[in-house]
Amino acid sequence: MSRRLAVLLLPAFAVAAVATAQERPPATTQALAPPAATPSDRPLQRQTGMVVLEREDGQRIIVRSLEPDSRVGGDRLDFEALDASGDGRVDRGEAGADKELKRRFDSVDANHDGGLDREELVDWIR
Length: 126
Description:
By secondary structure, the chain is α+β, with helices and mostly antiparallel strands. Helices cover about 35% and strands about 15% of the residues.
């Protein structure tokens, strides 16, 4: 390509680049994802046991067991949220919000009155 042709084409490329830049939407910022939870973010728990496994390649694997962070463990129910009517008991329809509670409703309803009070739910969770 001759030098003269290059000089003539250069302004055309510049105009095309400016036109393309003007057609694009402006750049926007996005919020960063929240940082991943780290062990220091969790409440302190007492260690109840530890085993160190030595692999043939020299790698060590440490397995720790911790005491539960609550007596109830992972099973939690929000009584106020389940008691949608606010009458102090969870009826069969309200229990449908929790699949397992719906399935076991009759066995949890210890006094067979058709509703679950706080004590019946606490006894079921324990």
